[in-house]
């Protein structure tokens, strides 16, 4: 049932004012995460994938998105709110109240009166003087790698349209009010055409409100909003990554006529680090290991995001060997703590003097072929290939 469905914007983790590119990007990320091929046998992921795909199908289509923004899930169900009135099977993919379909087609909103009354001579379909919620805002914030993995606090400054304190968002001077529009006589619409066919249009004077301000507010000039610079403290939790969104309720644009303010969505962009790399909650880094420690064994000092640590290197460690340091990764309040993965880079000494080179040569004189198994394995494979090659050439 539609009452059980989650909000499509919430499903994709986006704001209502999200652009087409933002919708597509959010869908691609979640589709990859929950795709059945990536989660075989996982029923929860399969249902999540279906939910994400359904949300994207509606929000990526301008027409469907307009219907959804106006009527919610009822726009694609078996009738809005389960009320009276017939349904027209197949409209919007699942049957919809015919009156609602016409209301959407004609651009009317669900206010008082039937759509047929509105079309053929009824009153206004909505109340433009009702309280109006403020718009949501987006702020892109670039942060350092350290802030993303450890968490931090930031102070940001944004320009925002706030509810006018003088008129409280009404647009009129305190003590004054509104009067009936002389053009439409309060109907909010004017009639054009003649004869049997008549067309209703939004009144150009009051813009559909049916009323006009008697005396505009001297602060906001009748807009109900004033632009101010606002300072906001932002708490960045540990474990965030590029694309993470932080919602700060009530810090968007101010509402009109007593309506609540919108929300502020902060989209994070994390700078890369020259040493540490990230894989979900795990940290990956390449650590140089002196060749003699790789050969003989020993310990090396390894930086982690939590501080320095010692790592034991067994004798005979090869280049590219990966070691795991449990619990040395990123800590997330929701998903726990990851690990740090160390990729060994065997380091060869540089800038040896003549005397140092001679001592090193004396040291390696004790080595024989048996000390280099990888070289021997390569030579055997090559010889096998050449034997086969010679046999083919004789045929």
- The CATH class of one domain is Mainly Beta
**Average pLDDT score:** 82
Distance between the termini: 75 Å
Strands across the major sheet, in which order?
12-13-19-16
Chain oligomer state = single chain
Q: Secondary-structure element sequence? A: HHHHEEHHEHEEEEEEEEEEHEEEEEEHH
Unreliable spans? 78-125
Strand content: 25-35%
Number of helices: 10
What class would the helix/strand composition place it in?
alpha+beta
CATH superfamily of one domain: Urease metallochaperone UreE, N-terminal domain
CATH architecture of one domain: Sandwich
In CATH terms, what is the fold-level topology of one domain? HSP40/DNAj peptide-binding domain
The major β-sheet equals: 4 strands, mixed
Helix content: 25-40%
Annotation, overall tally of beta strands: 19
Silhouette = elongated
Rg over CA atoms: 34 Å
